[in-house]
Amino acid sequence: MLTTSETAAVRAAIRAAGNLFLPNFRRGPVPQTLDELQTRLADIEGRCLAVLQEALAAAFPSTPWLAADEFALDNTASLPAEYWLCDAMDGAIQYVQQLPGWTINLVLMRQWEPVFAAIYDPLAEELFWAEAGAGAFVNETPLRPSTKREPGVMVAVFEHNHGLDHDADLRQRVSQGLEQLLARYGVVRNYGPHGLQLAYIGAGRLDVFLQVGRDLDNWLPGLLIAREAGADLLTATGQPWHWAADSLLVTAPGLGNAFTQPVA
């Protein structure tokens, strides 16, 4: 368990990082070339990470920071016992396109399990956070998933991996999953940031999240928040979710089995 002061330090740091970007939101031009886009995204990543690292250095002086390309739970021998995994701005493309739906995501891993996660939405001033075994919250309010039972009023969201144009099998599986969502639920959307969508499952704002294809580093912060809120974590085939799974189905309690059943 984190101490009260450590929890406070993490929450303050992630708020500071998110609020750093508010004054310039919708102030600059939208990038018009790939070079412009890549430069903007790299600048966002660097500025955000620097703020977080500086803010947390005193409370966690010996905890290293891992980039997504250094993270691999199938090779745990190469990972430290404790580390920060940071998606500096989840939904950065929305930020540079002057759209809402961008967040700052941070998760603390210990013994290869997420122990604390935070997702901050600066535009809404909402901080979703959870500690393993201690529940999930938005600001100070406990999260509770939806209690809906009528598919026609449920809102489902989907994500997909990059590189679908290079993997015909994955493209087919993604298409099949989307068809399943469209056949079962009243509203199907793609909202954007992985973590925020998963936190919204925990908050009862969304009912079903589906992603076919493995995207573990993007899932982790939202996974802990959704799980601690009481959501069900499954694979796309309805099996209990596990670290090696190459798909993720997160639903309000008890809804997962309906996704895998034939439509009447």
TrEMBL record:
Family matches, as InterPro entries: Inositol_monophosphatase-like
Signal peptide positions on this chain: none
Matches recorded under SUPFAM superfamilies: Carbohydrate phosphatase
PANTHER family, per database record: INOSITOL MONOPHOSPHATASE, INOSITOL-1-MONOPHOSPHATASE-RELATED
Listed transmembrane segments: none
One matching Pfam family: Inositol_P
Protein name (record): Inositol monophosphatase family protein
Domain of life per record: Bacteria
